[in-house]
Amino acid sequence: ALDLFERIGDDLGKANCLQFLGTLYIDLDQLDVAESALHSALKLFREIGNRLGQVNTLNELGRLYRGTRQYGEARTTLSWSAYQLSVDISDTLGQGTSLLYLGRIQTDCGELDEAEQSFTDALRLYETAQSPYGVRLAHEELDGLRARRQSIQPSDTATPAIRYPESSSSNSATGSADEL
Fold first, then answer.
1. C-alpha–C-alpha distance, residues 142 and 145, integer Å
2. DSSP character for 177?
3. How far, CA to CA in Å, does 166 sit from each of 74, 96, 116?
4. Cβ–Cβ < 8 Å for 2, 22
5. Please, are residues 22 and 35 in contact by the beta-carbon 8 Å criterion?
6. What are the residues whose beta carbons fall under 8 Å from the beta carbon of 171, sequence distance 6 or more?
7. Which residue in 27, 44, 151, 165 has its CB near the most CB atoms, within 10 A?
């Protein structure tokens, strides 16, 4: 299809194909090829002024950068580029996707409060966009985050901390052994 769009000069068709191929290559773990395809798609979407295509491509680039643990690049791509552009064009679904991906990055980086806020905001946006799939994804991420928090909290059955009684003397370090 890409060759056909090139032959007939359909830049939108070509950009869409490149974005789809980039997404496919991410899923196939061919990340260098994926990044190249997505950057080519992004360039074409910018040239023809298709901002929705830019949002979708930037979200995929953010997903790719997260997968390669390039968290700084992923944050910039998602939170500044994709999210802001989706706000500019009133793309509620794109905003939700950007925040969902951003929440995943925040979770990876141990920023659990920020991740919870991102997932909650994504859920609200997906509900507004009437996207059952997005709503399900946001709920799954929130559930996973809650489970992660529970697994890192101290257990109720852990040995309680030792408490030392306060000494009645002015210098507690010199209290008697009977006070313990």
1. 5
2. G
3. 52, 54, 41
4. no
5. yes
6. none
7. 44
Distance of alpha carbon 151 from alpha carbon 98, whole angstroms: 27
User: What does the DSSP 8-state code read for residue 80?
Assistant: I
- Cβ-contact 115, 80 below 8 angstroms: no
| Tokens, residue 40 | 């080519």
Q: What is the pLDDT along the chain (180 residues), one digit of tens a residue?
A: 778 788 888 899 999 999 999 999 999 999 999 999 999 999 999 999 999 999 999 999 999 999 999 999 999 888 779 999 999 999 999 999 999 999 999 999 999 999 999 999 999 999 999 999 999 999 999 999 999 988 886 654 444 443 334 443 444 333 333 333
CA 121-127-131 angle, to 5 degrees, is: 115
Query: 145 vs 66, 113, 121, 136, 163, CA distance in Å?
Result: 17, 10, 14, 14, 33
